Amino acid sequence: MDDHSEQVGPSDSGGQVQVRFEATIYPGDAGEVSAARVAAFDLDRVPDPGGQVRALLSLGDVYRLLEAGFEVRLQRALPLRPLNPELIADDRAVQAWFEERARSVGRTGPG
After folding, report:
1. Domains of the chain, residue spans
2. Which of 19, 27, 68, 98 is deepest in the core (most CB within 10 A)?
3. What value, to the nearest 5°, has the Cα angle with vertex 109 and ends 103 and 111?
4. Measured between alpha carbons, how far is 27 from 49 in angstroms, rounded to an integer?
């Protein structure tokens, strides 16, 4: 193997690809795709402006959906990585956010 070999995707030290897939789920052989049928799979749903069923899926989720007769169309692969610490709010910041929202509707906080 040369130094120019192409990497398939992000991986851990064991060589396992660590990605999730943004996918759209269609009925396939399963009949209709309803929120209740998809909810039974406990998937991480994402908003879809077209009203379709869209989710972030692991490879195992894709397999389970296909086995259940759904059609799964993968849109893109998203590498797993740690959450940016700047995106994590502490308790004080969250409390201030709630109080600001409550004031905007004319309510006051506990006190």
Report:
1. 19-79
2. 19
3. 145
4. 18
Q: Domain 19-79 carries which CATH code?
A: 3.30.70
Kind plus residue range of the DSSP H or E element containing 93: helix 91-104
CB-based burial label for 105 (10 Å; 0-12, 13-18, 19+): exposed
What does the alpha-carbon distance between residue 65 and residue 55 come to, in Å, rounded to a whole number? 12
Least Cα distance to 71 among 36, 22, 23, 34 occurs for 23
Identify which has the larger pLDDT, 14 or 22: 22
What is the tens place of the pLDDT at every residue in 26-49? 887 656 666 677 778 888 888 778
Which range (8-12, 47-51, 99-103) has the least confidence? 8-12
Retrieve residue 100's tokens: 């600001």
- CA atoms of 70 and 2, how far apart (whole Å): 40
Q: Note the pTM of the prediction, 2 decimals.
A: 0.58
Residues 76, 81, 36, 54, Cα dihedral to 10°: -20
